[in-house]
TrEMBL record:
Keywords: ATP-binding, Cytochrome c-type biogenesis, Membrane, Nucleotide-binding, Translocase, Transport
NCBIfam families reported in the protein's UniProt record: ccmA (TIGR01189), PRK13538.1 (NF010061)
A Pfam family reported for this protein in Swiss-Prot or TrEMBL: ABC_tran
Protein's UniProt keywords contain Membrane: yes
Name by which UniProt lists this protein: Cytochrome c biogenesis ATP-binding export protein CcmA
An annotated GO BP: cytochrome complex assembly
Residues covered by the ABC transporter domain: 5-209
GO molecular function, a single term: ATP hydrolysis activity
Amino acid sequence: MSLSLEARQLACERDGRWLFRGLDLTLNAGDVMRIEGPNGSGKTTLLKVLCGQIVDVEGEVLWQGEPLRRVRSELLANLLYLGHGAGVKAHLSALENLRWYQAISGDQVSSRDCELALARVGLVGFEEVPAIQLSAGQQRRIALARLHLTPRLLWVLDEPFIAIDAEGVAALEQLLAEHARRGGAVLVTTHHALERIEGLRSLRLAGEVAAA
Ligand SMILES: Nc1ncnc2c1ncn2[C@@H]1O[C@H](COP(=O)(O)OP(=O)(O)OP(=O)(O)O)[C@@H](O)[C@H]1O
């Protein structure tokens, strides 16, 4: 399936300040786009606008060429969104957290699939440990395991590298590049340079007119 997410002349004001204005963006299959900018510049806000979670903005977002307000359910069916926090349930184990994610995403996966996904993010031996007893990086890895489990074309990842060690950062960069090579697309906010990702596209938010 081809993939097209487009923003036209987006403008968002918060507290009398333009986070972005005149922002044009296109994301197609095979793209990895990094959204960068200082704290408070509007990166998370932009991701939420592009996914239809925030609608009080000017301009238009199109999914597969159609206005997002009309086709949001189609976008959601193709979207894997990992938010700024790790988003794990503290008193559920790593495995239970994945089962819970899969239950709300509506995907049919086995415990074995979940175990394999946890293994892919380096959590072998931690499957049954309550998340509250895991480190910040390990909790983030539970969330990242969903990238191996939930098949979606569009990955929108808000600061996925937080608390991840150098080896994990390299593995995640490789995973993003592979997803794009297989025909997916990735929008990612991060302060990392993502130098390993060939053809990386970047959009910097600094309260100015922007295009990507
Ligand atoms: N619901 C809201 N109501 C009013 N202002 C908001 C709201 N959400 C965010 N803001 C403001 O919008 C600005 C951008 O916030 P946002 O979280 O998008 O920034 P960010 O670039 O992702 O920041 P960080 O790098 O710190 O995560 C901030 O100044 C914030 O205070």
